[in-house]
Design goal:
The protein is built from ten helices and 14 strands. By secondary structure, the chain is α/β, with parallel strands linked by helices. The chain has two domains: about 140 residues, NAD(P)-binding Rossmann-like Domain (Rossmann fold); about 160 residues, Alpha-Beta Complex (L-2-Hydroxyisocaproate Dehydrogenase, Chain A, domain 2), CATH 3.90.110. Helix 1 packs parallel to helix 2.
Length: about 300
């Protein structure tokens, strides 16, 4: 029997994620959205492209959350997009209402599924999903760390004119202005980037990484990023369904790690068939610890504003 991935939200992020998962040939895909005809049309379009792109698998669209039944993984992209001048915290109340409804439906129709949250403000929405579903913390995680890290990697590769495949980098913390790009752990084929990029210029790249989402929002004017977020979520789906044991930063529940409790925050994990199989506690400098604690505080303050 084929595996099943359901993507809730058939907008740009959700539809792109469905495409990437289909092209990986790791699961049948169900697109779910409240807008009548939207998920059905995009799923049909996706399937009609399969003979050209050479992927096999079903893709269907639905307006009914009951279609979540049988899902191995649920990717949640539904929510209001961030607009120019809007902070992620501005999205809190609107998107909490949406995530609450999705969480109740996932709990009812797909009680054994893994849940990957993409909706912003991401760390807070992931916490809310975990609380609302009551699922084990290993099965509810957020996408942001993979996205922030791939942006960091892209900017380093762009700066040096090298293959993105040779750049490894990691970003911790919340998905927002207080994220913590770890320059000490960034390498190009094992060479520390600090040996290749002057400190001042590297700091500019760190700043651009922090503002990566806002930069795209300002350029698009009427939308937000979707290729990179969708590919990041698809990579996480693949790691779970193929049990790849990938070491990637994801928003996960912390219970004492890094001195933080009862908060979702981006940290390096081992991602496989068990979901969050291990949280790695890497040694941090005093400045990095301070930055991570600041990021956690911002997330915790928003969590406190969630409906109960």
């Amino acid at each position: 029997m084929r595996r099943k991935v359901s993507v809730v939200g058939a907008g740009n992020v959700g539809a792109s994620c469905a495409l990437y998962v289909s092209e990986m040939e790791i699961a049948d895909v169900t697109l779910i959205d409240v807008v009548e005809g939207l998920p059905q049309g995009k799923a049909l379009d996706l399937f009609e492209g399969s003979p050209v792109r050479g992927y096999d698998g079903a893709s269907v669209g639905s307006n009914d959350y009951a279609s979540l039944a049988g899902s191995d993984v649920v990717v949640v992209t539904a929510g209001f997009p961030r607009k120019p001048g809007m902070s992620r915290t501005d999205l809190l109340a609107k998107n909490a209402e949406i995530i609450g409804a999705v969480a109740d439906s996932v709990k009812k129709h797909a009680p054994q599924a893994f849940v990957i949250v993409v909706t912003n403000p991401l760390d807070v929405m992931t916490y809310f999903m975990w609380k609302r579903t009551g699922f084990p913390k290993e099965r509810v995680l957020g996408m942001a760390g993979v996205l922030d890290s791939t942006r960091f990697r892209s900017f380093i590769a762009m700066e040096l004119g090298v293959s993105v495949s040779d750049v490894m980098a990691m970003v911790l913390g919340g998905h927002g202005d207080a994220m913590v790009p770890l320059t000490r752990f960034a390498t190009v084929s094992g060479i520390p980037v600090s040996e290749l990029i002057p400190a001042a210029r590297l700091e500019e790249i760190v700043t651009r990484t922090r503002n990566g989402g806002a930069e795209i929002v300002s350029l698009l004017k009427t939308g937000s990023a979707y290729y990179a977020p969708a590919s990041s979520a698809a990579q996480m789906v693949e790691a779970i369904l193929k049990d790849k044991k990938r070491v990637v930063p994801c928003a996960v529940h912390l219970d004492g790690q890094y001195g933080l409790k009862d908060v979702y925050l981006g940290v390096p994990i081992r991602l496989g068939a068990g979901g969050v199989e291990k949280i790695f506690e890497v040694p941090l400098t005093a400045d990095e610890k301070s930055a991570l604690s600041k990021s956690a505080k911002e997330v915790a303050e928003m969590i406190a504003e969630l409906p109960h």
